């Protein structure tokens, strides 16, 4: 038989009731006081189905607390070692972040409390002393004067992976009414979900992102729908770009702050990350870009470090910790605080490699003890692994290799390192004095 929607809602709703009672019983069994409370006794709602989200909250309800087993709302939805806990979020910012992958809140959780202006407090069950993150309506002063009331204009970053980009282009699209309707009508007919849309002002092309597992059906539907236009040359192609990810920057105050987009794109450019598509609504609650899936985490780390860590975060790798390299490391140790405080340069030595040993660090090593670290935790030197660690295994996108050797074999790698977007500082003259074909 077929279960009705109301019966399905009835069964699904009891799952939470049963799990809550089991949890309460387990806590009492361990000798701790615990009382199970039926939320239906304190929350008044109109009968609805799962497709509706507008309950009538009791007028006396002042705050909704949501406990979570991870850190409260952070500046980034990914594995980043230095994510910053946010003190406040607006309802719109929280909704945008939840849409783009923040799993602390479901988007539909926010709608009813936003309608009644009820603050949401996200707390961590493993850190009771932390005040958590408060989601509420910003005051007029916060909106009009963001630099004074906000820790950062951009409140967070998030990604959606496993996407494909579909690009429909052709000169016959310009000025023709109904083209976009026909495109997205075909997408609707196959039941695909459009995550993002971007269109050139010339109307020469329209591109949009869909889940990877739905793109083949979408492409076939578009090929069928525009078969005559493709054969006549009015449309040049229906192109599919696989293995994409969306990176979104979220912040309600971005609309009134010049330069946010420039800072975002500059951070991605310095990390050698190519942008395939861009989308931004006029409300400017988010700026969305499409990048290669393989660049997703790197892109997150790049923009996060640019907005939250330092204007110039540097991941440094030292090749040749001899007399010159050792002296340089000691100088960096002595000047690190000055570089950060006076010049806003957050310099972190992520690796040191010699002829036989190397030592690597994920977050930057303590230069007070770099010699001891190299002796005690040094591993077999491998230049390829060393460079890979610097370039792809840390949260700082700006990488500098300092070659303190006079080794021509090391200098042969400069070209490849530069192509990867890495910077090179060296007293080694071998690279400029060898054969021209190098």
Automatic annotation (TrEMBL):
Pathway note: Amino-acid biosynthesis; L-methionine biosynthesis via de novo pathway
InterPro entries: AceGlu_kinase-like_sf, ACT-like_dom_sf, ACT_Aspartokinase, ACT_dom, Asp/hSer_DH_NAD-bd, Bifunc_Aspkin/hSer_DH, NAD(P)-bd_dom_sf
A GO BP annotation: homoserine biosynthetic process
Residue span(s) of domain ACT: 168-240, 249-326
Ranges in a coiled coil: none
UniProt keyword Cytoplasm present: no
Gene Ontology molecular-function annotations: aspartate kinase activity; ATP binding; homoserine dehydrogenase activity; NADP binding
Keyword Transferase: yes
Keywords annotated in UniProt: ATP-binding, Kinase, NADP, Nucleotide-binding, Transferase
Matching Pfam families: ACT_9, NAD_binding_3
EC number: 2.7.2.4
Protein name: aspartate kinase
